[in-house]
Amino acid sequence: MGSKILVVEDERITAEDIKSGLENAGYNVPAMVSTGEDAVDKAGKLRPDLVLMDIKLKGKIDGIEAAGQIKLRYNIPVIYLSAYSDEYTVKRAKITEPSGYIVKDETGLVKKPFEESELHNVIEITLHRHKMERDHDILLSAMLKNINDAVISTNADGRIILMNFLAESLTGWDLDDASGKELREVFTPLDKKYKLSDFNEKNELLTDNVILKNKKGEDIPVKCNLKIIRDDDYNIGGFMLVFNN
Length: 245
What we know:
- This protein is of the alpha/beta class.
- It is built from eight helices and ten strands.
- It has a five-stranded parallel beta sheet, sandwiched between helices.
- It is elongated, with a radius of gyration of 21 Å.
């Protein structure tokens, strides 16, 4: 059985068309849903390998918000189905870091003829990239377990993606519960008073004798080093926090 793909599309004919194309290409479509709420629910229950998400959906939340919740809660890649290219929609969509777009025409249907080969290529590239990222995270997690300091890693938005055992022990947070939360929610000494301008020329923020309030409400004195991780273009790719007591 091929990779599982959840289809989120409120136009039934379009959804059936997409499902047929995916199944012909060897993918498994365990469900089709038409609202953002159902998309988040099904993603949690079915844990698909990928979600094809229509941006404009009926219900309380649209496709962009649903995609954001799915990536935050379950780390499942999302490819958008969209006929909208206005600046506001594009800006909102970019925040969720989608893996790709499938363009719909002015009628709201996927452009005809249905570009199955193009869709297949986008899906395969997305699945491969996600696997590589997941394998990298597994390797990094294994490395972190052998470090004598507590370590928390975040994405560029400062939301937690990895913690080692010692970090879980000191903060009282399990990675499953902490994943997706802002770093300051778990590591309380990092309140809003710290800014990028506080980091030194090595992109590090060093603090001694600060108090970590763990999940149980206990105060733990710690010292820490918060480091900015930058890519080759000097853009912020994430943060690495190392601390101990």
